Amino acid sequence: EKNKKKAINIVIILAVIIIGSFILFNKQKQTYIESNSALGTALVAYSNSDLDNAKFQFESLVSRYEGTKSQIMANYYLGKIAHARNDFGEAQILLNEFLNHTEHTMLVCGAIKLLVDISFQTGSFFDSFEIIDKAKSFNLNNISKLELKLLEISAFIKINDLKSARIELDKILNNNSIPAHIKQKADEFAGML
């Protein structure tokens, strides 16, 4: 009788755990679907250059779906919108938030470029090197790495360290398999040095 009661209790506990897990899994799946849908809606507004609507959509997504991948992506686009509106303080916060939490290396180079641009526009040229170093923690493709190297050369030129700029430029130019747009920009830098 005691063993039968214990067995029934164990079966009930297991059933509760299984049902609870199933409900939690479905809720997470529903949140994932809803957050992706909200991101899609916001991206449509952004791609149509409706920045006010896009900003509202992204902000709503950030507040409603905190901790999701869509929320992290929304920070990137909110940072881009803030940058376009010359709200550099807000852009820095959002883009750094994106970089601190993203797994999407595809947008990392864009975020770094925007942050470096902000450092250039605000005259904080030395900060650009620290920003570019953040990219080293991501698994970027070779083209992105070369684009960041060009940013670094630009920063060296801005601080008038032409020797370092030349050294980094030679590393790029000695690479036999660089894309045409990188080669063109490298040649422009070579003409400046």
Report on the structure:
The protein has about 190 residues and is mainly alpha-helical. The chain is about 80% helix and about 0% strand. The chain has helices spanning about 1-45, 50-65, 70-85, 90-100, 110-120, 125-135, 140-160, 160-175, 180-190. The chain is elongated, with a radius of gyration of 24 Å. The N and C termini lie far apart (about 90 Å).
Provide a compact summary of the structure.
The chain has 193 residues and is mainly α.
Describe how the helices and strands are arranged:
Elements: H1 2-47, H2 51-64, H3 69-84, H4 88-101, H5 108-121, H6 127-134, H7 142-158, H8 162-173, H9 180-192
SSE pattern: HHHHHHHHH
Oligomer: single chain
N→C terminal distance: 91 Å
What is the 3D form?
A: elongated
Q: Would you identify the regions where 5 or more consecutive residues have pLDDT less than 50?
A: none
Rg for CA atoms = 24 Å
Tally of helical segments: 9
Largest sheet: none
- Write down the overall mean pLDDT: 88
Please provide the count of β strands: 0
What key phrases describe this protein's structure?
193 residues, mainly alpha, 9 helices
